[in-house]
Design goal:
The protein contains 19 helices and 13 strands. The protein is α/β, with parallel strands linked by helices and about 550 residues long. Strands 1-2-13-12-10-11 form a 6-stranded mixed sheet, with helices on both faces. Helix 9 links the parallel strand 7 and strand 8. The longest helix is centred in the C-terminal third of the chain and has 22 residues. The termini are far apart. Bound molecules: 6-O-phosphono-beta-D-fructofuranose. The site of 6-O-phosphono-beta-D-fructofuranose has 14 residues, from loops.
Amino acid sequence: MTQGLPDTLAAAARALAATPLTALFARDASRVASLTFAAAGLTVDLSKQRVTPEALALLVAHAETAGIPHWIEAMLAGERINLSENRSVLHTALRREDGAPVVVDGRDVMPDVRATRARIAALATSLRDGTRRGATGAPIRHVIAIGIGGSDLGPRLCVDALANPASPPPVPVRFVSNVDPDELDRALAGCDPATTLAIVESKTFTTQETLANASALRAWLRAAMPGADTRGHFIGVTANVDAAKSFGVDADAILPMWDWVGGRYSLWSAVGLPIAIACGPAAFDALLAGAAALDAHFATAPLARNLPALMGLCDWFNVRAYGAQQRLVVPYARALSLLPSYLQQLTMESNGKSVTRDGAPVDGATEASLWGGAGTDGQHAYFQWLHQGTHPVPVEFVVAVDAAHDATAGAGERQSLLVANALAQAQALMQGRDGDAAHRCPGNRPSTVVMMPRVDARHLGALIALWEHRTFVEGCLYGINSFDQFGVELGKSLAQPIAAALTTGAALPAATDASTRALVAHVLASRSVIPAKAGIQS
Ligand code: F6P
């Protein structure tokens, strides 16, 4: 523990680790006020984290030394801070509202950003009002969004979070990411090919799962409408326009992505088209406005009150000072059920690394794993482990004060019950309970409470932007580049020869290990559905 911490912070951490959280409250009557922060409509209570105002001041001083203000400025100014890929990192430009230019390679990118936002709104409107028609002239009734990772998780989260059961979208959007055939089958259930449109979302337009699913959907359309021109049933969102055209998307149905927007930061780009379709262009605008409000705070608030900086510092301190290897995010809002999945990619693909920007080994641990799920369901599953297990894990409770919708009788009472449970769990984790061995809860387990007024587009945008910036701050503290993801390449390349072995019977490469060979042989010998391409058995 305390590896990679400066001496002052290591000493503070040792003292804090020896002090129960309840004692920190007893010692400082103004603790809650000093450790509660707000930005863009979000209020964050850090008082149950293992910090004090003094420790936070030391952390802020460390952030200054680590150059966090410089990195924030460099990112927002479009400097090429993604060094390994020599790219700018400008997802914030996608939601900028101040009319200021954002220059990349001597060119203001904002006119393209604004033009794309106008196209998103126009396309969404044409689908929602039924003017967009398929090959037979019938209005489109279903949209299938095909993408994976950053080209799926953000829009999937937002569409689910902003759904209003009392007012279903005129054109529902279903998401397909997994290459498991079951996923596409489920998405297409009840859809009529003549009234179904696909959005193929892929920055590279080379991602195997996305292309396999898009090809399968194209075959489904062609089989149902032989001889018809089905190209109008596709919209592409990509930085690889040529590949999208070769696939069969009309040039004027391709919306751009730019190399200065990373995949997991791309929901604000045309990747967010499914949000504009399902929730309406105004909701998409509000989402971007909420994120822009948080961006303005991140850019201007002093570090001592800068919410993403303070939360990134606490995350980093939990890893480096207290050895946290995991963290939990538990939204007490059904609407945010998908938030942990979204955050897994954001945090773990960004900071799951062990070399610095210069390629040297990082001195100390990096990003904790992240998992979680909606409360109160989790209370009846893994919370037992949180309260009495042997792996104390920092928990983040995300609480919506008001219900998203209150269509059914007694919604206010049930919402109160929901919020009460969130607050009680945070209290229980900290206070614990005395009693005999079986009933005793040790307590002294840290948590954060994030309050939002309700899950609406504006506050959701702010919440996501908060996580983006806090992840960036954390990456800077580790000294790593949060914007590449070379680790995912190895598995992708190894899958190719195995897929060839399973589909065409090709021989496995000589370097294939014995376990993988045996598992491939098992599949070949025991499967009941043989791919059309399969011939020879290896
Ligand atoms: O998982 C690796 C990854 O490259 C992600 O970073 C990205 O969001 C996802 O694959 C999808 O990539 P693409 O948008 O190019 O299909």
